[in-house]
Protein backbone atom coordinates (compact mmCIF):
# COMPACT_ATOMS: atom_id res chain seq x y z
CA UNK A 1 0.00 0.00 0.00
CA UNK A 2 1.18 3.50 -0.82
CA UNK A 3 0.04 6.68 0.90
CA UNK A 4 -1.57 9.46 -1.10
CA UNK A 5 -0.54 13.06 -0.54
CA UNK A 6 -2.63 16.18 0.03
CA UNK A 7 -1.98 19.09 -2.30
CA UNK A 8 -1.09 21.47 0.54
CA UNK A 9 1.91 19.33 1.51
CA UNK A 10 3.76 20.25 -1.71
CA UNK A 11 5.08 23.56 -2.94
CA UNK A 12 5.87 23.34 -6.64
CA UNK A 13 5.14 26.90 -7.72
CA UNK A 14 3.69 27.54 -11.19
CA UNK A 15 4.91 27.18 -14.76
CA UNK A 16 5.01 29.77 -17.53
CA UNK A 17 2.52 29.73 -20.38
CA UNK A 18 5.41 30.42 -22.79
CA UNK A 19 7.02 27.37 -24.43
CA UNK A 20 6.30 23.67 -24.00
CA UNK A 21 4.15 22.94 -20.95
CA UNK A 22 5.27 19.33 -21.05
CA UNK A 23 8.94 20.32 -20.79
CA UNK A 24 8.24 22.86 -18.05
CA UNK A 25 6.25 20.37 -15.99
CA UNK A 26 8.99 17.74 -16.48
CA UNK A 27 11.56 20.25 -15.21
CA UNK A 28 9.37 21.19 -12.23
CA UNK A 29 8.89 17.54 -11.26
CA UNK A 30 12.61 16.80 -11.59
CA UNK A 31 13.37 19.80 -9.37
CA UNK A 32 10.85 18.53 -6.80
CA UNK A 33 12.50 15.10 -6.90
CA UNK A 34 15.93 16.65 -6.36
CA UNK A 35 14.71 18.84 -3.51
CA UNK A 36 13.13 15.83 -1.82
CA UNK A 37 9.55 17.13 -2.11
CA UNK A 38 8.44 14.10 -4.13
CA UNK A 39 9.34 10.96 -2.22
CA UNK A 40 9.20 7.20 -2.72
CA UNK A 41 6.22 5.46 -1.14
CA UNK A 42 3.71 8.22 -1.88
CA UNK A 43 1.23 8.26 -4.75
CA UNK A 44 0.80 11.62 -6.50
CA UNK A 45 -2.14 12.30 -8.81
CA UNK A 46 -1.79 14.16 -12.10
CA UNK A 47 -4.83 16.42 -11.45
CA UNK A 48 -3.47 17.46 -8.04
CA UNK A 49 -0.02 18.22 -9.45
CA UNK A 50 -1.59 20.06 -12.38
CA UNK A 51 -3.66 22.22 -10.03
CA UNK A 52 -0.56 23.15 -8.06
CA UNK A 53 1.34 24.07 -11.21
CA UNK A 54 -1.58 25.97 -12.73
CA UNK A 55 -2.02 23.62 -15.70
CA UNK A 56 -4.39 20.85 -16.70
CA UNK A 57 -3.68 17.21 -15.95
CA UNK A 58 -2.73 16.53 -19.58
CA UNK A 59 0.79 18.07 -19.63
CA UNK A 60 1.40 16.49 -16.22
CA UNK A 61 0.56 13.03 -17.57
CA UNK A 62 2.81 13.69 -20.59
CA UNK A 63 5.65 14.79 -18.32
CA UNK A 64 5.18 11.70 -16.17
CA UNK A 65 5.74 9.55 -19.27
CA UNK A 66 9.08 11.32 -19.77
CA UNK A 67 10.08 10.57 -16.17
CA UNK A 68 8.92 6.96 -16.52
CA UNK A 69 11.25 6.49 -19.50
CA UNK A 70 14.10 7.87 -17.41
CA UNK A 71 13.34 5.41 -14.62
CA UNK A 72 12.54 8.18 -12.12
CA UNK A 73 8.86 7.40 -11.48
CA UNK A 74 6.40 4.53 -11.91
CA UNK A 75 2.75 4.78 -12.93
CA UNK A 76 0.19 3.48 -10.42
CA UNK A 77 -2.81 2.37 -12.48
CA UNK A 78 -5.93 4.50 -11.89
CA UNK A 79 -4.17 6.30 -9.05
CA UNK A 80 -1.27 8.40 -10.30
CA UNK A 81 2.48 7.96 -10.03
CA UNK A 82 5.16 7.40 -7.42
CA UNK A 83 8.89 8.01 -7.25
CA UNK A 84 11.00 4.95 -8.04
CA UNK A 85 12.66 3.58 -4.93
CA UNK A 86 16.15 2.22 -5.61
CA UNK A 87 17.74 -0.57 -3.61
CA UNK A 88 21.20 -0.41 -2.10
CA UNK A 89 22.29 -2.97 -4.70
CA UNK A 90 21.13 -0.72 -7.54
CA UNK A 91 22.94 2.29 -6.10
CA UNK A 92 26.08 0.18 -5.80
CA UNK A 93 25.74 -0.84 -9.44
CA UNK A 94 25.33 2.79 -10.54
CA UNK A 95 28.46 3.77 -8.63
CA UNK A 96 30.43 0.85 -10.09
CA UNK A 97 29.49 1.78 -13.66
CA UNK A 98 30.44 5.40 -13.02
CA UNK A 99 33.83 4.27 -11.70
CA UNK A 100 34.41 2.15 -14.79
CA UNK A 101 33.51 4.97 -17.16
CA UNK A 102 34.38 8.27 -15.53
CA UNK A 103 37.74 7.46 -13.95
CA UNK A 104 39.61 6.46 -17.14
CA UNK A 105 37.74 8.96 -19.32
CA UNK A 106 38.57 11.93 -17.11
CA UNK A 107 42.11 10.59 -16.84
CA UNK A 108 42.31 10.63 -20.63
CA UNK A 109 41.36 14.30 -20.60
CA UNK A 110 44.43 14.98 -18.43
CA UNK A 111 46.56 13.27 -21.07
CA UNK A 112 45.02 15.50 -23.74
CA UNK A 113 45.36 18.74 -21.78
CA UNK A 114 48.61 19.70 -23.53
CA UNK A 115 46.38 20.56 -26.48
CA UNK A 116 45.54 24.26 -26.22
CA UNK A 117 41.87 23.76 -27.16
CA UNK A 118 41.38 21.12 -24.45
CA UNK A 119 43.16 23.32 -21.92
CA UNK A 120 40.95 26.28 -22.82
CA UNK A 121 37.83 24.15 -22.40
CA UNK A 122 39.05 22.98 -19.00
CA UNK A 123 39.58 26.59 -17.92
CA UNK A 124 36.06 27.27 -19.11
CA UNK A 125 34.76 24.85 -16.50
CA UNK A 126 35.91 27.05 -13.60
CA UNK A 127 32.78 29.23 -13.37
CA UNK A 128 30.69 26.08 -13.15
CA UNK A 129 32.94 24.63 -10.43
CA UNK A 130 32.65 27.87 -8.46
CA UNK A 131 28.88 27.82 -8.94
CA UNK A 132 28.72 24.30 -7.52
CA UNK A 133 30.46 25.51 -4.36
CA UNK A 134 28.04 28.44 -4.02
CA UNK A 135 25.02 26.19 -4.57
CA UNK A 136 26.31 23.77 -1.92
CA UNK A 137 26.84 26.61 0.56
CA UNK A 138 23.27 27.83 -0.05
CA UNK A 139 21.86 24.26 0.07
CA UNK A 140 20.32 24.99 -3.33
CA UNK A 141 19.96 21.36 -4.36
CA UNK A 142 18.30 21.99 -7.69
CA UNK A 143 21.07 24.35 -8.80
CA UNK A 144 23.74 22.06 -7.35
CA UNK A 145 22.49 19.10 -9.39
CA UNK A 146 22.20 21.17 -12.58
CA UNK A 147 25.74 22.58 -12.32
CA UNK A 148 27.29 19.34 -11.08
CA UNK A 149 25.79 17.32 -13.93
CA UNK A 150 26.88 19.84 -16.56
CA UNK A 151 30.39 20.04 -15.11
CA UNK A 152 30.94 16.29 -15.33
CA UNK A 153 29.27 16.01 -18.73
CA UNK A 154 31.44 18.77 -20.24
CA UNK A 155 34.60 17.41 -18.61
CA UNK A 156 33.91 13.93 -19.99
CA UNK A 157 33.04 15.31 -23.44
CA UNK A 158 36.62 16.58 -23.83
CA UNK A 159 37.70 12.95 -24.30
CA UNK A 160 35.61 12.84 -27.48
CA UNK A 161 33.24 9.96 -26.61
CA UNK A 162 29.63 11.16 -26.67
CA UNK A 163 28.28 7.74 -25.72
CA UNK A 164 30.13 7.84 -22.38
CA UNK A 165 28.61 11.25 -21.73
CA UNK A 166 25.11 9.97 -22.52
CA UNK A 167 25.41 6.94 -20.24
CA UNK A 168 26.85 8.93 -17.35
CA UNK A 169 24.12 11.59 -17.68
CA UNK A 170 21.49 8.88 -17.47
CA UNK A 171 23.09 7.29 -14.40
CA UNK A 172 23.38 10.62 -12.64
CA UNK A 173 19.77 11.55 -13.43
CA UNK A 174 18.61 8.30 -11.90
CA UNK A 175 20.85 8.19 -8.86
CA UNK A 176 21.96 11.60 -7.62
CA UNK A 177 18.45 12.34 -6.34
CA UNK A 178 18.83 9.91 -3.47
CA UNK A 179 19.89 11.19 -0.06
CA UNK A 180 21.05 14.62 -1.23
CA UNK A 181 18.64 16.56 0.97
CA UNK A 182 19.95 14.84 4.10
CA UNK A 183 23.52 15.45 2.95
CA UNK A 184 22.85 19.19 2.62
CA UNK A 185 21.30 19.31 6.09
CA UNK A 186 24.36 17.57 7.51
CA UNK A 187 26.63 20.27 6.06
CA UNK A 188 28.88 17.90 4.11
CA UNK A 189 27.90 18.87 0.58
CA UNK A 190 30.59 21.56 0.42
CA UNK A 191 33.47 19.11 0.65
CA UNK A 192 32.16 17.26 -2.40
CA UNK A 193 31.68 20.55 -4.24
CA UNK A 194 35.24 21.77 -3.66
CA UNK A 195 36.73 18.73 -5.41
CA UNK A 196 35.65 20.02 -8.83
CA UNK A 197 38.22 22.83 -8.97
CA UNK A 198 40.92 20.36 -7.96
CA UNK A 199 39.90 18.13 -10.89
CA UNK A 200 40.49 21.02 -13.28
CA UNK A 201 43.90 21.79 -11.76
CA UNK A 202 45.05 18.18 -11.98
CA UNK A 203 43.88 17.84 -15.56
CA UNK A 204 45.63 21.04 -16.65
CA UNK A 205 48.84 19.85 -15.04
CA UNK A 206 48.59 16.57 -16.96
CA UNK A 207 48.53 14.60 -13.71
CA UNK A 208 46.45 11.67 -14.90
CA UNK A 209 47.28 9.38 -11.97
CA UNK A 210 46.17 11.79 -9.26
CA UNK A 211 43.15 12.96 -11.24
CA UNK A 212 41.92 9.38 -11.62
CA UNK A 213 42.45 8.81 -7.89
CA UNK A 214 40.49 11.97 -7.07
CA UNK A 215 37.61 11.06 -9.39
CA UNK A 216 37.44 7.59 -7.81
CA UNK A 217 37.31 9.15 -4.33
CA UNK A 218 34.72 11.66 -5.51
CA UNK A 219 32.39 8.95 -6.77
CA UNK A 220 33.05 6.94 -3.59
CA UNK A 221 32.08 9.97 -1.51
CA UNK A 222 28.82 10.24 -3.42
CA UNK A 223 27.97 6.59 -2.80
CA UNK A 224 28.77 6.97 0.90
CA UNK A 225 26.60 10.07 1.06
CA UNK A 226 23.70 8.13 -0.43
CA UNK A 227 24.14 5.55 2.30
CA UNK A 228 24.45 8.22 5.01
CA UNK A 229 27.79 6.85 6.24
CA UNK A 230 30.15 9.59 5.09
CA UNK A 231 32.89 10.69 7.44
CA UNK A 232 31.63 14.02 8.73
CA UNK A 233 34.85 15.04 10.41
Short structural description:
By secondary structure, the protein is mainly alpha-helical. It is built from eleven helices and four strands. α4 runs antiparallel to α8, α4 packs antiparallel against α11 and α6 packs antiparallel against α10.
CATH architecture of the largest domain: Up-down Bundle
Task: State the helix count.
Answer: 11
Q: List segments where confidence is low: pLDDT < 50 over at least 5 consecutive residues.
A: 229-233
CATH topology group of the largest domain: Four Helix Bundle (Hemerythrin (Met), subunit A)
Order of helices and strands: EHEHHEEHHHHHHHH
| Helical content band | 55-70%
Name the overall outline.
elongated
Instruction: Tell me what portion of residues adopts beta-strand conformation.
Output: 5-15%
Under CATH, the homologous superfamily of the largest domain reads GntR ligand-binding domain-like
Radius of gyration: 19 Å
Strand line-up of the largest beta sheet: 1-2
Amino acid sequence: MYASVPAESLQLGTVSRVGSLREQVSAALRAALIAGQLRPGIVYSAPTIGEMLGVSATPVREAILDLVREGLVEVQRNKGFRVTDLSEEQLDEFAQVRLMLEVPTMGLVASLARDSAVAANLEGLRPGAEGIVRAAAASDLVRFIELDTEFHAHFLSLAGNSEVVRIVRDLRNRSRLYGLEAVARAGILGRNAEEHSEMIDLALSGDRENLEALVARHIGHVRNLWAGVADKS
